[in-house]
């Protein structure tokens, strides 16, 4: 009987190079097989090399950006804001914050926020370091519009000047913060005028005959009127809600110059009143003593 033959299952053909594997979206990826004769797999790019490559691309893109854009970005990074603290002065801030150009450059960049007097800064005031600041926005009543000013310029009622032509800046008012009161809230270290506590809308009078030097927004003083009196002294009215006069206008003692308010750096409505020997901040004298010397009952 013939011997039964043994059959071997044919060996599957060995792939010598690679197989194709289906990839995402139908793409094929060639996968090298272990032991494939003569096959050489490409060396994968390392993570560090990938990051370096991406950095090179980003750097080239930045280099190709317009010069104006790069300058604007650099300026944006260099500009920052500083909040004034008690005891600060512009020169001190310029020194401690390394402001190029010193306090004069700092004042120039923030003139609209500080106002006409560089010494008049107060705790909480925001200053821009390294660039121009935006115009200050009134925190209380807005500066009087031309329409409001025109309406207020109508002759006001009976004048209250004495025989010498002088009058109180506001009638029947209570004195709040007195002249020369010391405190860190004032940049000069003391109160340069006297505050009369009156509600918003109270009529304010020229203390004597003179000429309006300025009438408008004064930074921390809010809406203000400054008069050059005929005797050479200057009278300042600050924090007004509206103005009744304009620069260059002649006034007489007792004539209305505006209405009291709470514009600028204030905690409530009142009139801040000063008498100065010059129009500049720091030349103040005792306002009540001045009025008494003019025969005004204070």
Largest sheet: 8 strands, antiparallel
Q: N-to-C terminal Cα separation, in Å?
A: 149 Å
CATH topology grouping of the largest domain: Glucose Permease (Domain IIA)
Tell me the count of domains: 2
Work out the helix count: 7
Could you list some keywords that capture this structure?
298 residues; alpha+beta; Glucose Permease (Domain IIA); 2 domains; 15 strands; 22% strand; elongated
Structure notes:
The chain has 298 residues and is an alpha+beta fold. It has 2 domains: 64-129, Membrane-bound Lytic Murein Transglycosylase D, Chain A, CATH 3.10.350; 146-293, Glucose Permease (Domain IIA), CATH 2.70.70.10. The protein contains 7 helices and 15 strands. The chain has helices at 47-64, 67-78, 90-96, 102-109, 111-114, 146-152, 287-293; strands at residues 18-22, 28-32, 80-83, 126-129, 174-175, 194-197, 203-205, 210-217, 223-229, 234-240, 242-243, 250-251, 256-259, 271-276, 284-285. Strands 5, 6, 8, 9, 10, 12, 14 and 15 form an 8-stranded antiparallel beta sheet that branches. Strands 7-13-11 form a 3-stranded antiparallel beta sheet, with helices on one face. Strand 14 (271-276) and strand 15 form a beta hairpin. Helix 3 crosses helix 4 (102-109). The longest helix has 18 residues, at 47-64. It is elongated and about 65 Å long. The chain starts with 17 loop residues before the first strand and ends in a 5-residue tail after the last helix. Residues 12-48, 50-55 and 135-158 have low confidence and may be disordered.
């Amino acid at each position: 009987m013939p011997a039964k033959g043994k059959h071997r299952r044919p060996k599957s053909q060995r792939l010598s190079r690679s197989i194709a594997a289906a990839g995402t979206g139908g793409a094929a990826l060639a996968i090298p097989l272990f032991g494939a004769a003569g096959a050489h797999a490409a060396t994968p790019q390392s993570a560090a090399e990938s990051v370096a490559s991406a950095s090179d691309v980003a750097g080239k893109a930045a280099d190709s950006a317009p010069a104006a854009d790069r300058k604007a970005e650099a300026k944006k990074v260099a500009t920052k804001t500083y909040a004034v603290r008690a005891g600060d002065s512009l020169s001190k801030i310029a020194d401690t914050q390394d402001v190029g150009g010193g306090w004069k450059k700092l004042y120039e960049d923030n003139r609209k926020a500080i106002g006409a007097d560089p010494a008049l800064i107060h705790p909480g005031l925001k200053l821009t370091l390294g660039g121009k600041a935006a115009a200050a926005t009134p925190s209380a009543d807005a500066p009087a519009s031309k329409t409001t000013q025109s309406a207020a310029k109508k002759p006001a009622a009976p004048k209250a000047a004495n025989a010498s032509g002088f009058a109180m800046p506001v009638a029947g008012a209570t004195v709040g913060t007195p002249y020369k009161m010391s405190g860190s809230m004032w940049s000069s270290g003391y109160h340069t005028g006297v505050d009369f506590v009156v509600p918003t809308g109270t009529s304010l009078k020229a203390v004597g005959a003179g000429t309006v030097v300025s009438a408008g927004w004064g930074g921390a003083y809010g809406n203000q009127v400054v008069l050059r009196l005929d005797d050479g002294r200057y009278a300042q009215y600050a924090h007004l809600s509206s103005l009744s006069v304009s620069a260059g206008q002649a006034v007489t003692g007792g004539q209305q110059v505006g209405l009291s308010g709470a514009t600028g750096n204030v905690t409530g409505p009142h009139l801040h009143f000063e008498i100065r020997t010059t129009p500049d901040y720091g030349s103040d004298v005792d306002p009540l003593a001045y009025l008494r010397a003019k025969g005004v009952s204070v």
